[in-house]
Amino acid sequence: MFRPLSVNIGTRYARSSNSHLALVTLVALIGLALSVSVLLFVQGVVAGFERELTNRILGVIPHVTVRARESIATPAELGARIGEMAHVEGYASVIEGHALLSVGQKVRGVTINGIEPEQYRQVSRIHQYIRGTDDIALAPGEYGIVVGRKLADELGLMMGSRATVVLPDVTVTPLGVLPRQKSFFVRGILNTGSELDQRQVFIHRIDAATLYRLNEGVHSVKLRLDDPLRARNVRFEILADVSDKFTVSTWFQTYGALYSAIRAQKAMMLLLLSLLVAVASVNLVSSLVMIVSERRGDIAILRTMGSKRSLLIATFVFLGMAISGVGVTVGIGLGYFLGLFAEAGFPVLEGFLGVELMGEYVVDTLPFALAPADVGNVVGISGLLTLLATLYPAWRASSSNPTEALQHE
Q1: What are the tens digits of pLDDT across the range 176-188?
Q2: CA 235 from chain center: how many Å?
C-alpha cells in the first residue's frame, strides 16, 4: 500500500532501537496517557452525576407543580385542562404536607405525599425503585405507607412495621388538646440512592384526605414533561392560563442550581485538567527535540538530496502525532477502566470503612458515565495540544544546516 515518504520515515524513527531515545519517548507517552486518563475519568464522574440526577431524581420527582393557596376542589378538571398543553405527558393529583414520622422514641420530619398509585405512574417512576415489587402497594383504607431506605434505616423500619404519622394540627378532645396522628403500616421501601430516600413518604390519597380532612380536594396537581428542560416555558404557559389563585413551581427551584452547577463544573474541570495534557505535551517536545538532534545526519542527507522543508516538517509532525496517538489511546482505555473500577469498588470501600462517604450528597454512589461527546472532547483537546507541541521540533529539523551536520559525520 502506498504511503507518503514522510509517513515511512516517521514510522522508522518511531521504531528506533536507540535505548536512550526509546526511554525518553516512553516517558513522554506514559505522561500523556496518565494525563488523558485523569481528564477522562473526571469527565466521566461528573457526567455520571448528571446522568443520575436526570434518571433518578428527575425520573422520580414531577417536573411542574400547580398548587392552590388552600386546596384544589376540582383537581380532575384542572389536570385535564393543563394536560392538553404541549410537552405535558401526564398529571396526577396529590395531597402533600409536612409531618413527623414516629417509631418509639425516634422521630423524623418527613414530607407526606398522598397519591393514587396508578395515576401517579404518569408523573413519576418511583414504582421502579420500591424494594421487592414493581408497584406501589397502597390501597385506600389500609393505611399503608412507603418510606425511603435511609429513613427506614434511621427509624429501624422494615416491611410490615408500624409507624405513626403526627401532623402539626391539633384536635380538641375531652382529655385536652392532642396532636392529630395516625398509625400506618410499611408497605414498601423506596430506594432511589438519592436524598429523596431521607424525607419523602407516600400514602394513598384517600387516606391522606382523611388525615388532612380534605374530602375530594387536593393540595396540588403535578405534571410530567417530555423534556424536563422545558419546565420554565411550561410554567409560564400555565400561569397565563390559570387564575391567580394558583402558584406554579418547577424542579428548577429545588434542583436547578445543582443541575447548573454540575454542567458548569464539567466544563471547568475539562478546562483545568487540560493543563495536565499541556504539561505532558512539553515532555513530547523534549522527546522530539532529542530525536531531531540524534537524526541530524539523516536530516542533512535528505536536505542535500533535494528534499523540501515541508517533507521534514511532515515527518516529525507525523512522528509526534503517532506517539501522542498511542498515548491518548492508552489513556482513554485506562480512564475507562479506572471509572468502571471506581464505580464498582466504591460500595466495597464504604463497606470496608463502615462509613457512607457520599451519604450527605444528592446521589450516594460514585457514578461513571462515558459519553461519546466527552471522549471526542478529550481526543480533540489532546490532539490539538500535541499537534502544537510537534511544530517547534519539526521547524527546527527543517531549519537545520546540512553543512554543519555533515562535517562531523
Answers
A1: 566 778 899 998 8
A2: 25
Distance CA 361, CA 59 (A): 18
361 CB contacts (<8 Å, ≥6 apart)?
A: 195
SS3 of residue 166 by DSSP: strand
Model confidence pLDDT, tens digit, residues 323-351? 888 888 999 999 999 888 888 887 777 77
In sign, the C-alpha dihedral spanning 301, 302, 308, 314 is: negative
Dihedral sign computed on CA atoms, order 389, 390, 393, 396: negative
Q: Give dist(CA 273, CA 39) in Å, integer.
A: 6
Which residue type is seen at 249?
Answer: S
Whole-angstrom distance, CA of residue 264 vs CA of residue 51: 15
In this structure, the chain runs to a length of 409
Helices (H) and strands (E) in the chain, counts: 14, 9
Q: CA 366, 369, 371 angle in degrees (round to 5)?
A: 160
pTM of the model: 0.71
Q: E strands, 208-362, where?
A: 218-225, 246-250
Please give the helix or strand (H or E) that residue 159 lies within, else none.
none
With b for 16 or more beta-carbon neighbours within 10 A and e for fewer, the 229-266 pattern comes to ebbeebbebbeeebeeebebebbbeebeeebeebeeeb
pLDDT-above-90 percentage for the chain = 13
3-state secondary structure of 173: strand
Taking the C-alpha atoms of residue 149 and residue 145, their distance in angstroms, rounded to an integer, is: 13
Q: Is the pLDDT of residue 2 over 60?
A: no
Enclosing H/E stretch for 253: none
Contact yes or no for 44/341 (Cβ under 8 A): no
d(CA 192, CA 128): 9
